[in-house]
Design brief:
By secondary structure, the chain is of the alpha/beta class. The protein has two domains: about 10-250, Aspartate Aminotransferase, domain 2 (3-Layer(aba) Sandwich); about 255-385, Aspartate Aminotransferase, domain 1, CATH 3.90.1150.10. The protein has 14 helices and twelve strands. It has helices at about 10-15, 55-70, 80-90, 105-115, 130-135, 160-170, 180-185, 220-235, 240-250, 250-270, 290-295, 310-320, 350-355, 375-385; strands at about 75-80, 95-100, 120-125, 140-150, 175, 195-200, 215, 275-280, 305-310, 325, 335-340, 365. It is globular, with a radius of gyration of 21 Å. The termini are far apart. The protein binds pyridoxal-5'-phosphate. Pyridoxal-5'-phosphate binds next to helix 3 and helix 4.
């Protein structure tokens, strides 16, 4: 792309944003700049690149690409989603308080309860469905509100626009973990959030072959702090991983369309299945926040949770009988994955808190891939018969 034009659609940005032919050879794809350092003509006389932790052209291209997709002025990439989260929290200091939605990604919960309290950063977990509740738990030292929407694994939605408007009145920053939606389906910055974060391991990577993280913002001051910390802490992705990220974003829009199409079809079918007690999916009219989903999300994505009749025994048997769905943690790949949050992704959360959140014995989480929908239904159907 010769020059970046702000009014291009996401489908075009996904393929072109942040990338231009290699100036030396004209190679259309950004090369993997697998180098640790750059030769200088004399001390301090260089082409803008000194050392690869700080400057790497492959990483820069991915950072520009993802920033464009999120409508952010600035973007930074990290070696994992957890590295992105850690770097973000290192921008705060001892004595600061974070308000985080309950029902978050297990690794986020672990960081907030086991790692950051040791550095004097305290977190309160709260149900973000009402602003009154958020207001009640806001303290004079609250510096950040941390949102994940849809939540994991129960797919509750949080109104990003409302929470951001409240936070603004108090001078509190808002960060949205947008991993479940991808930049194609939801753009938190356009709804008033200050920071958007991704585990690029999931939908952005999309092929279950790379671990990475991203933070985007249009706030120059915040970006400068994060960029300083990215370099100082050093949790940067490798050039090869950045190349894989660039290769993946080229099909992000097409994959997300199919994930959403399959998600809607599978959720609708599951809802009518006699052996399923309950289905939660933001694209179903039965979702209690269906209207918010319509307003906030471009489409409903590929994450579904459902409760199987028969409890733990039945759930375990069901999971071991599936042929196409792979029983595995993680999500967002082209292949369908299925898991038991109580035994797998959310096993680290104390049982009483799990019960309070609604992570029951028969709860199953699905990351619908982009396979043929009839094959997926048939696989679930045969496994339920066992
Ligand atoms: C996976 C995930 C993370 C952590 O990302 P890693 O790349 O595994 O470190 C954070 N948030 C959400 C919502 C996730 O699904």
């Amino acid at each position: 792309m010769k020059e970046h034009k702000a009014n291009l659609h996401k489908d075009t940005l996904a393929i072109h944003a942040g990338q231009s032919p290699d100036p030396t050879t004209g190679a259309i794809m950004t090369p993997i700049y697998q180098t640790s350092t750059y030769v200088q003509d004399g001390p301090g006389i260089h082409k803008g690149f000194e050392y690869s932790r700080t400057h790497n052209p492959t990483r820069f291209a991915l950072e520009r690409n993802l920033a464009a997709l999120e409508g952010a002025k600035y973007g930074l990439c990290f070696s994992s989603g957890c590295a992105a989260m850690s770097t973000a929290i290192h921008s705060f200091k001892s004595g600061d308080h974070i308000l985080c939605c309950d029902d978050v990604y297990g690794g986020t919960y672990r960081l907030f309860t086991k790692v950051f309290p040791q550095m004097g950063v305290e977190t309160t977990f709260a149900d973000f469905s009402s602003i009154q509740n958020i207001e009640k738990l806001t303290k004079s030292n609250t510096k950040l509100i941390w949102i994940e929407t849809p939540t994991n694994p129960l797919l509750k939605l949080i109104d990003i626009e409302k929470v951001s408007a409240f936070a603004k009145t108090k001078g509190i920053k808002v960060l949205v973990d947008n991993t479940f939606m991808s930049p194609y389906l939801q753009n938190p910055l356009s709804l008033g959030a200050d920071l958007v974060l991704h585990s690029t391991t999931k939908y952005i990577g999309g092929h279950s072959d790379v671990v990475g993280g991203f933070i985007g913002t249009s706030d120059e001051e915040l970006h400068k702090i994060l960029q300083f910390n990215q370099n100082a802490i050093g949790a940067i992705p490798s050039p090869l991983d950045c190349f894989l990220g660039l290769r993946s974003t080229k099909t992000l829009h097409v994959r997300m369309q199919r994930h959403s199409e399959n998600g809607k079809a599978l959720a609708t079918w599951l809802e009518s299945h006699p052996q399923i007690e309950k289905v939660t999916y933001p694209g179903l009219k039965s979702h209690p926040q269906y209207d918010l989903a319509k307003r906030q999300m471009k489409d409903s994505g590929g994450m579904i949770t459902f409760v199987i009749k028969g409890g733990m025994d039945k759930a375990k048997k069901f999971l071991s009988r599936l042929n196409i769905f792979a029983c595995a943690e993680s999500l967002g790949g082209v292949e369908s994955l299925i898991e038991h949050p109580g035994l797998m992704t959310h096993a680290g959360i104390p049982a009483d808190i799990r019960a309070k959140l609604g992570i029951v014995d028969g709860l199953i989480r699905v990351s619908v891939g982009i396979e043929n929908i009839d094959d997926l239904k048939a696989d679930i159907d045969q496994a339920l018969k066992g």
